[in-house]
Each structure stands twice: as structure tokens, then as C-alpha cells.
Design a protein that fits this description.
The complex is a heterodimer of chains A (385) and B (285). By secondary structure, chain A is α/β, with parallel strands linked by helices. Chain A is built from 13 helices and 15 strands.
Chain lengths: 385, 285
């Protein structure tokens, strides 16, 4: 009996020595749909990693409030009170930009889930422990332009761009305009105040322009007013294409959303093995399926971190970073590996424009419609607005 | 000409909801004498009531109007008794800080309960359009304009034709004399603040259909309401509708005729406040 205990204790001690324990800070805007989805994804990924038994991931979750003023003290707490070495976070560009100083001060391994703005790329250009999974804004533009080229080939000629006049909507609008004009489009761009809900005047003026595509760059608060008021003024574009960071809750159930198109990195209907596996696991854990691509993004980050920690056999952040740089894995978005960013500013860039797909709200849900090889349904063009 | 007419229609229809939000605020300022910074959050509560009833039981927002008004009347009355009444004798800065604090608290409560996301209701008539003589406008903005006119007409009738309404106006004009005539000032304050919140609740229900429900939905409209009551003259209920029409028309005209005018829309109401206050101080000098 005594021998049995000795063997058991030795085995347990051996197991605990073989298991790498990681304390990971998760800094996300958990009161937003995207932030909650990202957190769910990270938790699901961590659960999978822990189930393997080789790496034990302990998550310390804090809310960044989707605001720099909340995020910076939250990161400081993670680093000084919770003493984590690894942080998963950085969903919104503005928040992540504000975190660049404190991150460089505390030197964690920073696994960035969102923050597409090139301003963030510049801010982290001299930081070697920065792994950016999400595509950069120039990847987003490239993917959207590919779709606009397809629309041009299908007869679209005039694009009316409605852009919110804050940093999100107006950054790069001139470049965007030029690129569309280079494709052969005639473009009319109009600024608006996001959240004002007043579009009838601008849309009335646009009637004279007779746009084939109404392209709006704004926030979720603008989605429904634009959809309703486009009809109310009788604009009748062939396509309404929106580019908000998130869509309103329940928008897909509103008949006004029908035929409206947009861009996302993932939908549950994406047909690859990892995506199907993710959907199954997510449904099992949370009892529902999400449309938010931040959920699989969080999941991928946790899985890749687990894989790197397992290869490193250590909780040392630099050894994990070195292994993460070598990671090659299939994900719900497609293959993941890290390369220097296209501009060469950051060393570890995960995904690029190839993960983006265009969707259309059709019969109460978002369906992939472009590129053709990933489309679940043909694009309805012209749409009925 | 068609563009001008369409712009004028757009402006007039927008004025309905502006007037509804501003009338409630004017009632609180004019009768109770308190600048209620939480007025936008009462509007937000109305929007969420409509949203929850729609999602929970499929109740059409038009049906939930009455319930929202009643709930907000109670919320307003409780707010008056619990928070406003104790500070009525305090300096104005304290009163403003109190309502500002209430605004922040309600907004954060909504953030905790519902998150920061935008939520939409989907009644079948939401995108319906009326075409008339080459002009077109939405059924919902038109209905909300008509409803605003009816409600405000009812309010003005109440204030001008009923004993209780006359008592409200008497208290608004002089805080001491009505007491000598047996008018219970406290009761009038309670009624006015409750009505003010109820009007905000009704406006919130309309906003949930026209725009969305979110913790910040009332903010932009409260700013405009402040511009309107400044333009009308603080507490001058009769001036609210003309001021709302003037502001909405100015916004529509700027948005239509000024290049890049959509970005200037929000500047219009600041310009209105600035111009009105400057003009008043010149006139007084």
C-alpha cells in the first residue's frame, strides 16, 4: 500500500512538472457583442488546451470598457497585481493604440485580437512581443476592392459613399475614393454624423447622382436608419453595402436588412473542418451559435498559444513567443502562420485579406456571397431596397 | 423646387420628435425649475421598454406607447420624490450635478443590463413609404410627427383649458402666489416632472422604431432639446414647437444644400444656442 502511494505521488509530481501552467490576462470590451464573443472564444480555446493536459491555461479576465481611460488602468492591474506575462486583447483600434505605451512599459507577450488600424501597426512597430492575428486595414480595403471590381464587372458604375466624419469613417476616405475611381467608378462621398439618425437630407441629394452602390462606413447605430431612409426617399440603389465594426443586435430579423451586404471574416456556414469543429464545440459549451467572427478569433488565439506553450515546454514568455512565431495550424479562417506585416513594420502578422468574405442578409441570416469559391448563395444584385 | 420641397418635408417631420423631447424638458425647466440632464436617459428607458416588449412578447411599439408613458410617469414621480425634491432649495449647480449624476447612473445601469450594443425592433411598417406628388416620406416619421402633434396639442389643451393645467402654469409663472390661492405646489411639481418623464418615454418608444435602442440613444436628442428650449426661451412651452421646426428645418437645409453638409448638422444646434444667447444679451443691454 505504501509503495502504491509513493508511485501515485511520483506520478502526480511528474505530471505537474510536465504540465506548463500559463496565467493569461484577457483584456476585452466584454459589454459589447464582439467583446463577449471574443471572450467566449478564448474561454473555449483555453478549455480545449486544458483538456489536452500538457498546458494549463488560467485566464484573468478584465473589461477594457471599450475605452482607453478604462483599458490602461485595467492593463496596469493585470501586469502589477495579477502579474501575468501574456495578454490577449486589443479589440478596438483606439483602445489598442492607447495601450501601446503601457504594453511597452510592462513588456508582456501581447496577442492582439483586433485593432485593424495601421496607426496601431505603427505604434507597435518597435515591439518584438506583439503578435497581431487580425488583418490590417489595408487588407480589409484590398478585400473590399476585390468585391467592388466584381460588382463593376456586373454593371455597377456609380458609388455613393456615406462616411461618418470621425476617425473611423474618414481615415483613408480619399485613398479609398481614388482606388474606386481607378477601377472605373464615379464616386460621390458625403460625410455624416454617426448616431444622428438623420440621413433623409443627404439621401435626397444623392438621388440626383443615382448611385448603383450605396456604401456606408459608420457604426451599428446607423444601420437601421440608413436602411429605412434609403427606402423612404426612394433612392433605389442596386446594392447597399455597409462596413460597421458590428451590426445591431437582431438586425437580421428585421425585413429592412434583407439584401444588405457587408464584410466579415467568418460565418458559421463556412465549410471547413476547423470551422465545423468550432461551431460544434461552441454550441456544446454555450448552447447557441454565434455569427461574430471574434469568437473563432479568440478561440484560435488560445489554441495557438497553447500549442506554442506546449512546444516551448515552459511558461517563459520569450520561449513561447519563439514557438508561436513557428506555429502553423488550420483554423476556422483557414491556415494560420506568422510573417512580417506587408509594410514590414511588425514582425508577427497572422491573417491577411484572404480570410475576408462578403455576406448578404438573406432571409433572416448572413450568407457568404463572395468570393465565389466561398459563397453559400449567389449575390442578389440588384438587391431589392 | 422638388428638392427644396422634399427638404422642407424632411425637416418638418424631424421636428415632431424634437418637439416631443424638448416639451418634456421645457416642462421640467419651466414648472419645477430644474435642468434635468437625465431627460435623455428617460428617453432611453422608453426605447428599451419598447424593445423588451417587442422581443419578449411581440408587442408592437405603438401598443407599448401607453405602457411606456405610464412607467416613465412613475419613474419620473419617484425621481422627483426621492432626488429632486430634497435639492429644490439648493443652489442650481447642485441640482444640475444631481441630474447629471442620475444621467450617468442610468446610462451605466443600462450598459450593465443590456451592454453597449445597438438593438432594433422590427415592426412590419418600419420601411413603409408614402409617395405624394413626386415627393416621398416614411410612414414612421410621418406617424411620429402626427403623434407628436396630437400629444403636444393635448398637453397645450391641458395647460390652457383645465384647472389643473392652469395651476401648473400659475406655478411656472410664480412659485409663491399660487400657494396663497390654495394650489399645492408639491403636487404640481410632481405632476409636471412625471409628465416630463412620460413625454420622454413616448419619444423613446418612437426612437426605438425610427433609430434603435441603446444606452446612449437619448443623448443626441437631449442636446437638441436643450438648443430648442434655449431658442424658445427657458420654460416657454408655447415656443417649443416653432423652435423645434426652425432647428429641424435649419438642419435639413444645411444637410441638403451645404457641400459636405451631413458633417455640419450637429453644429447647427450649437450655432442656434450661440446665436440666441448672443441676440438675447444684445437685446437686454
Amino acid at each position: 500500500m505504501k509503495k502504491l502511494w509513493v508511485v501515485l505521488v511520483t506520478l502526480l509530481a511528474g505530471l505537474s512538472l510536465a504540465q506548463t501552467t500559463l496565467r493569461v490576462g484577457v483584456l476585452l470590451p466584454i459589454s459589447t457583442v464582439a467583446g463577449k464573443a471574443a471572450l467566449n472564444g478564448v474561454q473555449l480555446g483555453a478549455e480545449q488546451v486544458n483538456a489536452s493536459g500538457k498546458v494549463r491555461m488560467e485566464l484573468v479576465v478584465v473589461d477594457d470598457g471599450n475605452a482607453p481611460a478604462t483599458a490602461v488602468p485595467a492593463l496596469t492591474k493585470l501586469m502589477t497585481v495579477d502579474r501575468v506575462d501574456i495578454v490577449i486583447g486589443g479589440l478596438a483600434s483606439g483602445v489598442t493604440f492607447a495601450l501601446s505605451g503601457p504594453v511597452k512599459q510592462y513588456q508582456p507577450l501581447f496577442l492582439c485580437i483586433g485593432a485593424a488600424s495601421s496607426v496601431v501597426e505603427q505604434a507597435f512597430s518597435d515591439y518584438g512581443r506583439f503578435f497581431h492575428y487580425h488583418p490590417w486595414d489595408y487588407h480589409n480595403v484590398a478585400a473590399a476592392l476585390e468585391f467592388f471590381k466584381y460588382l463593376y464587372d456586373n454593371g455597377a458604375r456609380r458609388v455613393a459613399i456615406l462616411y461618418e466624419d470621425g476617425p473611423f469613417g474618414s481615415a483613408g476616405i480619399q485613398t479609398y475614393r481614388q482606388q474606386l475611381e481607378r477601377q472605373g467608378y464615379t464616386v460621390q462621398a458625403e460625410p455624416f454624423k454617426s448616431g444622428s439618425g438623420s440621413f433623409t437630407a443627404i439621401l435626397t441629394r444623392l438621388k440626383a447622382f443615382r448611385p448603383d452602390i450605396l456604401y456606408w462606413i459608420g457604426y451599428d447605430v446607423d444601420a437601421l436608419p440608413i436602411a429605412a431612409q434609403t427606402r423612404q426617399v426612394g433612392l433605389e440603389p442596386k446594392l447597399i453595402y455597409g462596413a460597421p465594426p458590428a451590426w445591431p443586435v437582431g438586425f437580421e430579423k428585421n425585413s429592412l436588412s434583407n439584401d444588405i451586404a457587408g464584410m466579415t471574416a467568418w460565418l458559421p456556414s463556412v465549410a471547413n473542418a476547423e470551422s465545423r469543429r468550432f461551431v460544434t464545440l461552441y454550441r456544446r459549451k454555450f448552447g447557441e451559435v454565434t455569427d461574430e467572427y471574434m469568437a473563432p478569433m479568440g478561440y484560435v488565439i488560445a489554441l495557438s498559444l497553447g500549442r506554442a506553450a506546449e512546444a516551448a515546454g515552459s511558461s517563459d514568455k520569450d520561449r513561447i513567443a519563439a514557438e508561436l512565431a513557428k506555429v502553423q495550424m488550420d483554423t476556422p479562417f483557414g491556415p494560420l502562420s506568422f510573417k512580417p506585416s506587408d509594410t514590414g513594420r511588425t514582425r508577427y502578422q497572422g491573417f491577411n485579406q484572404s480570410i475576408w468574405l462578403q455576406f448578404q442578409y438573406l432571409e433572416g441570416s448572413r450568407r457568404p456571397v463572395f468570393p465565389p469559391n466561398r459563397a453559400a448563395r449567389p449575390l442578389r444584385f440588384p438587391g431589392n431596397y | 423646387m422638388e428638392l427644396l420641397l422634399q427638404t422642407l418635408i424632411n425637416g418638418v417631420l424631424a421636428a415632431g420628435i424634437y418637439a416631443l423631447v424638448a416639451s418634456g424638458l421645457a416642462l421640467a425647466v419651466g414648472v419645477v425649475g430644474i435642468v434635468n440632464f437625465a431627460h435623455g436617459e428617460f428617453t432611453m428607458l422608453g426605447a428599451f421598454i419598447a424593445y423588451l416588449l417587442f422581443v419578449g412578447s411581440g408587442l408592437d411599439p405603438l401598443v407599448s406607447l401607453g405602457l411606456a408613458a405610464l412607467v416613465l410617469f412613475l419613474v419620473g414621480s419617484l425621481t422627483y420624490y426621492g432626488l429632486i425634491r430634497p435639492v429644490l432649495g439648493a443652489p442650481e449647480l447642485n441640482q444640475m450635478l444631481l441630474t447629471f449624476g442620475l444621467s450617468v447612473a442610468l446610462q451605466n445601469l443600462a450598459l450593465l443590463l443590456f451592454g453597449a450594443n445597438t438593438r432594433v425592433v422590427s415592426p412590419p411598417y418600419q420601411g413603409s413609404t408614402i409617395h405624394l406628388l413626386g415627393l416621398s416620406f416614411g410612414v414612421v416619421p410621418f406617424a411620429s410627427f402626427v403623434l407628436s402633434v396630437v400629444l403636444l396639442g393635448g398637453l397645450y389643451w391641458f395647460l390652457g383649458r383645465t384647472r389643473l393645467g392652469l395651476a401648473v402654469r400659475a406655478v411656472a409663472q410664480n412659485r409663491l402666489a399660487p400657494g396663497l390661492l390654495g394650489i399645492e405646489k408639491e403636487r404640481i411639481y410632481l405632476l409636471a416632472f412625471g409628465l416630463s418623464a412620460a413625454l420622454a418615454g413616448v419619444a423613446g418608444v418612437m426612437l426605438s422604431v425610427i433609430l434603435y435602442a441603446s444606452p446612449t440613444v437619448g443623448f443626441a436628442y437631449t442636446l437638441k432639446a436643450f438648443a430648442i428650449i434655449v431658442m424658445a426661451g427657458l420654460g416657454n412651452l408655447g415656443g417649443v414647437v416653432p423652435a423645434a421646426v426652425a432647428l429641424a428645418l435649419a438642419e435639413a437645409l444645411v444637410s441638403t444644400y451645404l457641400p459636405g453638409g451631413g458633417g455640419w448638422v450637429e453644429a447647427v444646434f450649437f450655432l442656434v444656442i450661440f446665436a440666441t444667447l448672443t441676440w438675447r444679451s444684445w437685446r437686454a443691454a
